[in-house]
């Protein structure tokens, strides 16, 4: 299991298109992936409902955790989504 | 027994046909559903979800094909939520605890609706998407496969509680003789669609509509704003006659050979098809606001490029006049900080914002337009809204130059399109000569021109009589603009409601307008009027009408021809 803290770059935060891309990416990997606010409970990164429910704005830190055979690749890809401006 | 129910006719067309109800309701309360064993309930849920997926994919494809890719994107979101693990987990949990699939669906989507309603702005609108998906699943769980709107027999009148954008996108004007809905108004999505596709439609009828039975013969009566059940012979003849206007796809000219371009006003790529169908020569007003509304961020350059190119490809032999973003305090857009203003129609809007607060958006829109000008098949023209000063026009023209220079440097293919200004204000009319020297064309927006010349709001019923382009002050403003344009060899069109009134076609031709642009549905009638007009007679009519000092005299001269 690996974990990384990432600052959200897209202007919209984890909403709309960035959230949609984030969820799509999480679904592409076999590893279990969660995302959490720095001081909050993790939610399923493969759920659009859960991810948008975090209501995480641009500039905020989130903790991404991946556990599984392709955890390294999953984290890389998800970090790329969160650090790419729209 | 013949009877009628009243509503609002949203197109000038009437129609006659046989009723098919498009029912989306009839879902029993979840509590009344008795749960089978969990295994069976789980199977029922999976089956409903599978059918929902198929329906959504079918609707997405059909919408992308008929309407446009942007409009189809909503189905992608629905598909994503349909398979959302948090939602499906919650439904499966409920079922395992002994609940019926219906209860699980209601609870899971109920939570999702609560979540989105608790959020700000655009996310709150997601709650409606959740309701749509829930209702779809509930309908499928009840075993109700919806009638296929695109495959109804010819001569069908669709009756429904309401029609969503995806429903209307399935309607085939060749088969559907009309539709009527319980809810909705003149500006509802279904209404806009009906106008662009040329389908007779009466909306906002209310609960009375529900009394009309399946398979009865009804008339959708635009003249009476009503749905008439079992109409008598006279009504049948009257409503059937109104659809028989020949559609002319080729350009038309007056009896003495003056060609008048008859074009369509559109706001979304969805309406392009309706415009082609009604025989439009091109697009005389492409409003770009809809591209920017109902979303959380502006469309980027590439997205716009695609939309504008699609429009140009829809009219390979025609001209597409795109109006740059015309936004003000009355149409707030969440990502623009347009302050609410005391009087938005006299405030920061149109070209004023494009040169200042929205300069970045203006630039990216122009980049997309200049690129589309070489990529799309048709001819592109670009016009600026609400120009009141020469400085504003010069500023906008400078921006076009800068954008062209940058594209050149970047090695990106582009072309500089025809440039024009909208004539909507007394200031633009007064400065028409100076403006005309700087552009290729004018387009008169008569709704705003009447509002600003007469100082009478479009929204106020109390001054509706003043807000009328047939006041001599407005007519003289039009004449002055035409003369200024023609003195510098610029062409001049009209894209307000007035242009689509067939009773005024002769007057407008007589005034010297080169192009008339209107709602697609009135194009066949106006084209027919043009072919029956003789230029010299029209000019004499215009001279007479322009000599009037009162609106009453204007009417007198118009009717006394």
From TrEMBL, chain A:
Keywords: Cytoplasm, Phosphotransferase system. This is Phosphocarrier protein HPr. It comes from the Archaea. One of its GO terms (cellular component) is cytoplasm. One of its GO terms (biological process) is phosphoenolpyruvate-dependent sugar phosphotransferase system. Signal peptide: none annotated. Coiled coil: none annotated. The keyword Cytoplasm applies. CDD domains: PTS-HPr_like (cd00367). Residues 1-86 form the HPr domain. The keyword Phosphoprotein does not apply. Pfam families: PTS-HPr (PF00381). It is found in: Cytoplasm. Transmembrane segments: none annotated.
Automatic annotation (TrEMBL), chain B:
Residues 247-533 form the PEP-utilising enzyme C-terminal domain. It comes from the Archaea. It is found in: Cytoplasm. Residues 42-73 form a coiled coil. Residues 153-224 form the PEP-utilising enzyme mobile domain. Mg(2+) binds at residues 424, 448. Residues 7-126 form the Phosphotransferase system enzyme I N-terminal domain. The keyword Metal-binding applies. Its EC number is 2.7.3.9. Belongs to the PEP-utilizing enzyme family. This is Phosphoenolpyruvate-protein phosphotransferase.
